[in-house]
Amino acid sequence: MKDYLHNKATKDRKLCEIIKRAINLDRKRQALTWDDIANELGVSGGTLENKLKPSYDNGDVTVTELVHLLELSADYTPLEYIAKKFDLVLVPRKEAHCTTDNIHSLCDKANFENSDVFKSVKQALEDGVITTSERDNILKEIDESERASAELREQIKNLEVQE
Q1: How many CB atoms lie within 10 A of CB 30?
Q2: Same domain assignment for residues 66 and 126
Q3: pLDDT tens digits, residue range 48-89?
């Protein structure tokens, strides 16, 4: 855990870009203007633009505004980015009835993803050195494996069992 600082943290440039991208995708999907989105969030278009500028120090997107945006757009990429930043895996809960066929499929997927981790690590270690791109690929494969395993875990937890 980081020590507390006596000053405000700087804006996360990448998060600002991801939120802007989510807004712009939703605008296109729903034929809305920037001001339409901003008004729905309770701010003006200029204020929203400023809140998403990394160089603007006088305002940030609030948690309430971000949650409202997630609800409106159903685009969870900002939340996925935040989860990844803290080394967490974000897995949506499935409301659908879980069947044994679903479990078979998810189990296979988790196994394949885990095999991809094994394969990428073994290939990277062949020459005894792991490069930056190899490390990034391994981490990507681990993320995919963790997500598949978490999806399987959620379905197993919600599975109707017989006693």
Answers
A1: 11
A2: no
A3: 999 999 888 788 899 999 999 999 888 889 998 999 899 888
